[in-house]
Design brief:
- By secondary structure, the chain is an alpha+beta fold.
- The protein has 3 domains: about 1-35, no CATH class; about 35-185 and about 265-355, no CATH class; about 190-260, no CATH class.
- About 15% of the residues lie in helices and about 45% in strands.
- The chain has helices at about 1-10, 20-35, 205-210, 235-260, 300-305; strands spanning about 40-45, 50-55, 60-65, 70-80, 110-125, 125-140, 145-150, 155-170, 175-185, 215-220, 220-225, 230-235, 265-275, 280-295, 310-325, 330-340, 340-355.
- The strands form 3 sheets. It has a 12-stranded antiparallel beta sheet, with helices on one face. A 3-stranded antiparallel beta sheet has the order 10-11-12.
- It is globular.
- It starts with a helix and ends with a strand.
């Protein structure tokens, strides 16, 4: 994935071996591509949840304070996406906190070339995440070509996707599309812990822990548990099972998944886009359905874990309506994705009333 990200980030900047005439032409094309685009970098932060006092009376009254470090985000990006009629950029500068649902749409406002490259490092309530969205999109009257890399650290999803679609316009507002999608990702569905399941459905976690280098020591005073370095990690079974074992299982599963190569999935995609806009009413919706996926018979193909075909889909809706023009309005915005039976979504809805 890192190589894919590096390739995506340098695509707009490639310029190799040009003579003067070609170099001039190349610079003209680059200027045309980046015209109206915006580069931005921003840092945002604020306090997290307040400190929490934890009391204990095991050895007399003791007080421990749990502190959560402040929240922050570091955002870097460049974007060239034409704003749709209902979009209003309220800020003078991009600060990295913008959330435009329409970025997920298959088709934008204009025909031609658009792109987005954005990386966002954030810490939220003590946990750190890396979110990335990069895409190149070209929309024509009869076809759509798009390549995209997405990483959502909060939803724990990461993949590279390329699609080529035939587009059929129906009037000025609706278009249908059909084509092929190629997705590169980790082998979702693979569960490293399945080989440690017993016939009764329980997990043989003790044997797994011993394989991972942990040890158990028995003495007249009781039982102790040691990590691979010989450090004491638990002095009783309750702490061992409640605290240490979950960490062992999590580390083991993550390591086993990281050892595997990414898998390439070929799928058929069917989609639609609808866009209507007036100052008092607008509706923008899109959807994508992948009903069939090619099975290459690989050991870590999702077909193996799912016992056959499955449905992947994504979609979005942006709706706004002024019940009383420029005074009372309602809105609904959201998007939903489900790939490999993993889902992630965002939504917003409400009303505005202006007192005059």
């Amino acid at each position: 994935m890192k190589k894919i990200l590096a390739l995506l980030m340098i695509i707009p900047f490639l310029a190799i071996g040009q003579d003067k005439k070609e170099d001039s032409k190349f610079k003209t094309e680059i200027k045309k591509i980046f015209k109206f685009s915006t580069f931005y970098a921003a840092a945002n932060g604020g306090n997290s949840v307040s400190d929490v006092d934890v009391f204990s009376i095991t050895n007399g009254l003791e007080t421990n304070t749990i502190e959560t470090p402040f929240d922050y985000s570091l955002t870097f990006g460049v974007r060239k996406i034409a704003r749709l009629g209902y979009e209003n950029r309220a800020n003078t500068f991009y600060n990295g906190t913008e959330n435009s649902f329409s970025d997920a749409a298959t088709i934008g406002k204009i025909k031609g070339f658009e792109f987005l490259f954005e990386a966002d490092w954030r810490r939220q309530q003590g946990s750190t995440f890396l979110d990335q969205q990069h895409f190149l999109r070209y929309v024509a009257n009869k076809y759509i070509v798009k390549v995209e890399y997405l990483q959502d650290g909060f939803a724990d999803i990461e993949y590279f996707e390329a699609s080529q679609r035939y587009r059929q316009k129906i009037g000025k507002k609706l278009s249908l599309n059909i084509g092929a999608v190629q997705r590169l990702s980790e082998p979702y569905g693979y569960d490293p812990l399945e080989e440690w399941l017993l016939e009764n459905g329980n997990l043989h976690y003790t044997q797994l822990a011993l394989q991972e280098g942990y040890s158990i020591s028995f003495s007249p005073e009781g039982i102790t548990y040691l990590d691979p370095s010989g450090n004491l990690v638990a002095e009783n079974t309750e702490v061992w099972e409640a605290v240490v074992v979950p960490e062992i299982l999590s580390d083991y599963a993550e390591r086993k998944r990281d050892e595997l190569d990414n898998t390439l999935q070929h799928s058929i995609v069917i989609g639609f886009d609808y866009y209507h806009y007036t100052k008092d009413f607008w509706l923008h919706s899109w959807g994508n359905l992948m009903p069939y996926h090619f099975d290459n018979g690989g050991e870590f193909s999702y077909h193996t874990f799912n016992n056959g075909q499955w449905l992947d889909y994504s979609g979005g809706l942006i709706f706004g309506y002024y019940l009383i023009p420029k005074k009372l309005g309602i809105f609904i915005e959201g998007k939903y994705n489900k790939y490999w039976n993993r889902n992630w979504h965002d939504f917003s809805f409400g009303f505005n009333y202006v007192i005059k």
